[in-house]
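#help-structures
NK: newbie question, is this the right format to request a structure? protein is Carbohydrate ABC transporter permease
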Amino acid sequence: MVANSLRPTSEIFTEPLRPPLSPSFDSYVRVWTEASFSTYFLNSLIVTCGAVLIGTAVSALAAYPLARYDFFGNRFLSAYFLAGLMLPIRLGLVPIFYLMESMGLIDSLLGLTLLYAASGVPFGVFVLGAFYRSLPLELDEAARIDGAGEFRIFGRIMLPLVRPALASVALFQFVPLWHEFLYPLVLLRTDDRFTIPRGLAQFFGEYQTDWSALFAGLVLATLPLFVLFVVATKQIIAGLTAGMSK
């Protein structure tokens, strides 16, 4: 895909598997400027990062009492979040559309951000809850003896300890949201609000014979995920293996 993005379209069909004879970044420049890819990229960055930040924050707050406290309704709430993890959000496509329309959030990046944030909370609660439960309860008791309140225990003790899990939750929310196509297709109307998947669909229709530009668009859409995985590999492993027995 990278090699074909650096060669002209005529060369793609004659030498598709060989390195490009004369590499050129003209396709990337054309995609970034003529195809409004810079706008799509910025919209995806705003929506995805906003949704990940909101979803991770809500997940951390919700998972903490469910994992550390035994209170009336704990099992019911845990089952509620688990049901949200098991049932795909697409089952409620029509009700969600009418809800967004009643709130004036159709064709809005804010509406898409809130929807994405809500969709990631069940997974975040599931992962962070397991991580919270792996921490000894003596940490909470010692902090309370020293006079720390609940919010201070959460912010000063718990959050630093669950940092690997937070990174894993954020990453695993980021990846599917970056590639999400259905809700941008349903909720977004104007070109300057399209995210990358929605913009690429329109881009493929306009540039369907310019294969070099199409490959360049796919490379640009995939590059942030590749960089993110390389940077956060250690955090992913630490977050997903926390609490596992040897």
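mod (FA): yep, format's fine, and the tokens are attached above. Residues 37-68 form the longest helix (32 residues).
NK: thank you!
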